[in-house]
């Protein structure tokens, strides 16, 4: 993804032909400002560098600096703020656990993430786009982190889906990784996922998997198939599926699928997974749990930019 090209297009959408007429009308052209970007809510940070790039791309005179914060896990997915377990530097006073805030940092409400310094008009013109991206991506990371924490100690891994915002997929999937999750296929081009409509068009699960395996080769591309009944499991395995997606199965059916598969392929649970149900699903011993809402419906993290007096 060409991040700068994307940001230029997003800025152009906001500024239009006339630019920021509010800032131009109220702020002297030579006015300078210093502001801090802060997380008003507790959560896991993602997209901070992208958000800060908005300011410098709009005006190269703007300077940005990421800050240190107590209990921030810089660059490494951490626990949800306020949760149990170790904090970012282990035991010791908060002053000994300072780290530069970055993607994967878990921060408390009120944490200052970065400082922005430069022409006041430019800072104000870039503010909304920067905060929109930071809040959205940090919301995804925070939701992912909550799920990851909930299934700690099981073998399962949280992964995303293709239910992403058009043109934002690379950033949203990076936010999932920041939250400690993994990425499912990035698009239609890098893995086979045979859904119910594919099966209907071909005639059977086995036939669809066999055709896919023959088309992509034995080892070159992963072949996954969706099933919604246990009777199709053996057929899918025999045809050479690498992963079998258990669509909207209850935990009892998932456990039965795990027993029948006996490690011959990976099993992925999907459909209706929530923070309340994910632990029970993980305890069936499935390998993957895919969750669409972490990218398409995760609440944005509350973030702000405040001028310093």
What does this structure look like?
By secondary structure, the protein is α/β, with parallel strands linked by helices. It has two domains: 3-149 and 298-307, Aldehyde Oxidoreductase, domain 3, CATH 3.90.1170.20; 151-296, Aldolase class I (TIM Barrel, Alpha-Beta Barrel), CATH 3.20.20.70. The chain has eleven helices and 14 strands. The protein has helices at residues 3-15, 21-26, 48-58, 120-150, 169-178, 196-202, 205-216, 233-239, 251-261, 278-282, 293-296, and strands at 32-39, 43-44, 63-66, 68-70, 98-100, 106-107, 111-119, 157-159, 192-194, 223-227, 243-247, 266-270, 288-290, 303-307. The protein has a six-stranded parallel sheet with strand order 8-13-12-11-10-9. A four-stranded antiparallel sheet has the order 3-7-1-14, covered by helices on one side. The protein has a two-stranded antiparallel sheet with strand order 2-6. Helix 9 (251-261) links the parallel strand 11 and strand 12.
